[in-house]
Amino acid sequence: MVALKRVKPHSDAITKKEGFSLVALREIRLLQMLNDKNIVKLLGVVTDHQSSRKQGTLGEVFLCLEYAMSDLNGLKALPDFKLTPAHVQCYMYQLLRGVYVMHRHGILHRDIKPANILIQRNNVAKIADFGISKQLKRPQKAQALGKLPAGVDHQRLTSGNRVQTLPFRAPEVFLGETNYTGAIDVWSCGITMAYLLSDTALWPMNVPEAKANTVQMQWIWDLVGTDRWEGASKLPQYTQFRPARAVPTRGPTFTTPLWREKFGRLPPQAQDLLRCLLHPDPAQRITAFDATSHDYFWDKVGPDGSPAAPDAASLPPLDMEAAHDAGAREEAHADRARRREAA
């Protein structure tokens, strides 16, 4: 079984001829470069020759991708499925590992979020949707400099700042930074981890669209504090998104009241990794490479007695059909209740 992703054709304004859009070509090229177990594989490109001959156009074009049963967003929403700490640990390790592979190739994803992290039945996580991803013009070859690999961790990509889905957008992007690094992907990983570990709403909901950016950035200030990023005021949109109030961090763990409310009950190692991923200063934020070595992931012992990373094979296979059936039953029950209320 495979998944098909329809490619929207691009129509030339002058010749009126249809062709591939630059976005689609870029996604195909990047997927061909990235051959890794935690990144979705491009199996081929297929076209509907019958419709193209009939209409005299390019016809419908599809990316043929490896199939996954769900994504993290859908998995968390299932009523009869509980994401355990072991699930979150395993999925986050794979996500950060996949981000490290991208960064090693000089590629920024720029839209990391649960809906773009596919989960296969065997619990293998795969990063998908490279539609707005970009590669550095002159990426360094993959090489290790001590523990810090070359890539996009400290190289900068000059580009527009209209990237990342709002709740997962890094603070430097809000503040107008257009010369950013792979740290924006790491921030999105941190928000993804926080979302997976939260049983209640994580960020402000039902905010009017006109105020959404301002409210979200103030939520970030409230969460991580206003005293940990000295260079924030130098960014071009700081005045627009400056904190409405001072939010000092306290104690050796640099926490705020909102942080303690949202994450205070998490195990210390989980909180520490979140603090590293969600450091407001991108220059101080942990890299994806270093994050995979965090103690949060290495609490198990391998056959040889040494610390072992999370293993997808250690989790029971996902019974997605049963979970989806349970979700359908609950939705049908809710629909009947709504009908009774309407009557």
Automatic annotation (TrEMBL):
Give the record's keywords alphabetically: ATP-binding, Nucleotide-binding
User: SMART domains, per this entry?
Assistant: S_TKc
Q: Which GO terms describe its molecular function?
A: ATP binding; protein serine/threonine kinase activity
Region: Disordered, residue numbers: 302-343
Q: Where is the composition biased (Basic and acidic residues)?
A: 321-343
Q: Which InterPro entries match?
A: CDK (IPR050108), Kinase-like_dom_sf (IPR011009), Prot_kinase_dom (IPR000719), Ser/Thr_kinase_AS (IPR008271)
Comp. bias (Low complexity) = 303-318
**Locate the Protein kinase domain: which residues?**
1-297
Q: Where are the transmembrane segments?
A: none
Question: Which superkingdom heads the taxonomic lineage of this protein's source?
Answer: Eukaryota
Task: Give the CC-aspect GO terms.
Answer: nucleus
Entry similarity comment: Belongs to the protein kinase superfamily. CMGC Ser/Thr protein kinase family. CDC2/CDKX subfamily.
Quaternary form? May form a complex composed of at least the catalytic subunit CRK2 and a cyclin.
What is the name attached to this protein's record? Answer: Cyclin-dependent kinase 2 homolog
UniProt organism field: Cafeteria roenbergensis
